[in-house]
Each structure stands twice: as structure tokens, then as C-alpha cells.
Amino acid sequence: MYINWVHQYVPPTFASLALAVNPVFIYLIFSEKVAILGNYRYLLLYFACFNLIYSTFVLLLPIAIHSYRYCFSIFTSDGHFLEASSLNLNLLIARCSLIACSYAVLLSHFVYRYLAVKTSNYTGRKFPIFMLGSLILTSLFFGYGFAICAFGNSPAGKAYLRESYFKTHNIDSMKLNIIAAVFYEVPDGLEYRSYASIGLLTIQSVTSLTLFITLGTMVDFLNQNQKVNIASRRFGRSIVSSSI
């Protein structure tokens, strides 16, 4: 099968680097020198573990993207899970769903920053509840992405791509695990499912990005207010001292 060298070598290279660096990162998190991180180190551990899981999927399940007319698709391009089967297709969907999980992981970071600025108990005594909520949110995002990818996929999409795959990659698309969205030239049922799937995934992405921006802005605003309050108190003390 012919695959562009960028898609073939760049992702595994970065995944290998992630697998090499993250164990060191985990060690540094829990070393005595960075013990001042407090409970935030467990959130960093959560990020590192997610990165390790995703990097493992990248190495074991390499993927590529193919577009043709009114369709674009993601398919398994190499490895032990290349052959078409229900298990291998579910693994491909799972890998794509991990991208949705990354939104949940980042959202946990922004929420923690906001709670930390507000000196909430959920960053201290109630931190286990916060971590449990983060894990539940990640699971929900994963299930959401998995369900949408499975809902929008159909063997008709593989059949639509058959000629194009053979010309481009020199392989029969029916022998591959493919997730495809087709918006025209296929039965109406598949068209509607493709539009619905892309729409739902777009809503998830836009909502997540909106929350990132909103929480980040709120954290910056609260930090600025705290700095102003500290400066005001110091100024007041200096006035009192000088007047005495």
C-alpha cells in the first residue's frame, strides 16, 4: 500500500518520543524537587498517562486520511490490525475517539486552574471528587465520539471509495478498516448520517474550545483582580505607615 511518507513516519516518531519522555516526566512530577505542585501533580500524572495511551495507539494502529469527491475517510494504513474485521474497526474507532478525549483532558486542566484561583476545596480536601469527575468526563467524551463514528459509518462508504483506493493506494477498500463520511452520490440514509455525525462532532469541538477560551479568560481576569487587590493593600499599608 502506498502512503505519503509524512503520514507514515512523522506520527510514529512523535509517539515514540512521547513514550520515552512521559515516564521521565512522571518521575519528575513525584520527585521531591517538585513536591510543591500539591494535588496538581496527580492531574499532571493523568495527562501523562493519557498521552502514553494515545501514543501506544498511534504506534499499534497507524492511520491515514483519504478524500475522494464527496467523501473523506480515515483508515488503518499498516500494522497487525490492518485486515478488515469488527474488532479492528472498533479499534480504529477507539483511536479516533481518543481525539475527543483530549478535549476532556484539557478541559480538566482549565477547570482546575479556575478552581485553584477561587481557592476551592475541590483542589484540596475534595480533590478526589474532582479527579473522579475528570475521569467520568473523559469516559463520556470517549463514548460520545465512539458512538458518533460508529453511527456515521457504513459499508456503502467503503464501496463508494473502492475505485479511488485502488488507484491511489493499490488496495481494495473492502479489505480495509475505514471510517468514511459521504455527503452525496450514496443512499440518502448514509448522507443524513454523515451530515449528522460531522455536525455533532463539530458541536463537541466548538463547545470545548469555547469553554477553554471562557475559562482561560476568567482565570486571567481573577488573577489580575488578585494582583490589584494585593497592590491596593500594600499601598494602604504604606500610607498608614507614612502617616504614623
TrEMBL record:
Assigned keywords, A-Z: Membrane, Transmembrane, Transmembrane helix
Domain of life: Eukaryota
UniProt xrefs under InterPro entries: 7TM_GPCR_serpentine_rcpt_Srj (IPR019423)
Membrane spanning residue stretches: 12-30, 42-65, 92-115, 127-153, 195-219
Pfam families with a match to the protein in the record: 7TM_GPCR_Srj (PF10319)
Record's protein name: Uncharacterized protein
